[in-house]
Amino acid sequence: MQLAWWFAGDAKLSTTARNLLSLSDTIILVSAASAWEICAKVRIGKLPTGHDLCENFLRIITEHQLEPLAVTVEHGRLAGRMAGTHKDPFDRILAAQALVEDVRL
To answer: Are 29 and 101 in contact (CB under 8 A)?
Structure first.
């Protein structure tokens, strides 16, 4: 949801995330899981401000020079095996991607 908050200028985006996103040399990866989560929340009415982002996801992230990151079998394997009580599948796959790709989440 951080991506949707960033595009919407929402105050829910952490200061740390906002600072990282403002650095010109930061390469920002955007998971396919983020597209899935945003569009799912738009569909069920939990993210009414995300309609344009959902409909034009690839164009918007490309215009902002963000790098798409596909979900791989290794990401899915790790997400399914990760210890912890967090049950949100979107958060689990994003955490797994960060570990496999050795990037900050």
So the answer is: yes
- Taken in order 25, 29, 34, 35, is the CA torsion positive or negative? positive
| DSSP H helices in the chain | 2-8, 15-22, 32-43, 51-55, 57-63, 73-81, 89-101
Q: What is the pLDDT of residues 20-68, one digit of tens each?
A: 777 778 889 999 999 999 999 999 999 998 999 999 999 999 998 899 9
CA atoms in the 13 A half-sphere facing the CB of 20:
14
Q: Which residues of 6-45 are buried (b: 16+ CB within 10 A; e: fewer)?
A: bbeeeeebeeebeeeeeeeeeebbbbbbbbbbbbebbeee
Helix (H, G, I), strand (E, B) or coil at 69: strand
Residues in the chain: 105
Provide the mean pLDDT of the chain: 90
What is the rounded distance in angstroms from the CA atom of residue 41 to the CA atom of residue 9?
18
